[in-house]
Amino acid sequence: MKGILKIAIIGGGIGGMCAAIQLSKQGYQVDLIEQRDTLKPLGAGISLSAATLRALKEIGVIDQVLEIAGSFSLIELRTAEGHKIMQAPVLPAIGAEDLKNHNAGILRTKLASILETRLRELGVNVIVSNTVEKFQNHKDGVDIQLTGENHWRHYDIVVGADGIHSKVRKNIYPDYKGLKFTHQGSWRIVIPRYFEHLTMYVGKTLKAGMTPISKEESYLFVLDHHEQDEAIPQNEWPQRLAKLLAEFGDPLTRIKQKIDEGEIEEKDIIYRPLYTHLIETPWYKDRVVLLGDAVHSTTPHLASGAGLAIEGGIILAEELARADSIEDAFKQYQARHFDRANLVISSSTRLGEIEISQGSPEEHRNIMIQTMQRLRERI
Q1: Is residue 164 part of a domain?
Q2: Cis previous bond, 251, omega within 30
C-alpha cells in the first residue's frame, strides 16, 4: 500500500515475529520491539496443528521447522491406566497436502530461533529490553516513546502483539475487562518421547497428553480444574503436579517418580491459568491494530493459539498489500479473521466445560473432529 513506509510491532512473540517477516517481505521498514532481553520465549513445547503448519509454510520456514520438530500423523486416546481406546488419523490442511506428517510439536525456543533467524535475514530491526512508555495515536501515524528515551519515534502503523495482558490494547480500550477465567490450568514439562504419535490420557477429572517435539522428546501437558483463579506459588508446583499425575498409570507414573525424587524441579515446570477473550468491537483505532493474544486468546484444547496469531500476521500483511486505505485493510483483516478466532475460542471453551463437568465423551469427540475439519479450510 502506498503511504506506508515504517511499521512498529510491539511484542516479539511468535505472532509478532511472523507479522514482522510477512510485512518485511513487502518492503516495509519494520521495528520489532520486545520488552524482554531476548526473543526466545519462556515455555516448554508447542503443538503445531495442520493449519499452523500450513501457515508456517506460507511464512517460509516449514523446512527448518520439520527438520527438528517431532512430527506425527495419528492421535491416540487412552484411559488413565494407559489402555488404548481409539486412534484417529490427522488430516492435512488444504494447501499443505505435500507435508509428510500433518501435525507436529516443537520446543518454543527452537521455533522462536528459526523465526528470529528469518526476520533478521530480511532486515527487521529488533529492539529488545524495551517497551512503549508514551503513546500518541492519530489519523496520520503513531508516535511512541520507548522506556529511557526522551525522543519520539514516528511510525505509519503500530501493531500491538504484546500478549493477553496487552499494554497496547489498554491504550485503545482503557476500560477493557474481557478476560475470562476458564476454571482450568495448564501444566507443562519436557519429557522423553514414549510414543510415536500424540497420546492423550483421559482420567476421572483430568486430561493429560504427550506431544512429540523432536525425535527424542515430548512435552507433557496436564489440564486441571480450579474453582478460583488462584496464584500458585512456584515452589509448590512440583508437589501439585506430582499429585495430579497420581491419577494416571505408566509412563506418567515414571514422571511422577522423577518429580518425587527431585529430578524434575520447579524450574522445569510451566504452569499457567487459562483465560479466553475475543474483542468484538474494532480491532484497531486510527493507526494502531491488535494481533494475536492481544485481541483473541484461547485455551490449548485445539492446539491453535499460536496458529491463530501466525495466520493473523499473514492476513494483516495480505490486506495491507491489497487495500486502498489503512482503515480498509484493518477492517478486512478483522472480517477475515474474526469467525476463525471465534470458532477456536468457543469450541475450546466448550471442550474445557465438558472436561470439568465430566460431560459427554461423544460431544467432546464430535467438537474436536468438526472443529479440526473446519480449521483445515483456507481463510
Answers
A1: yes
A2: yes
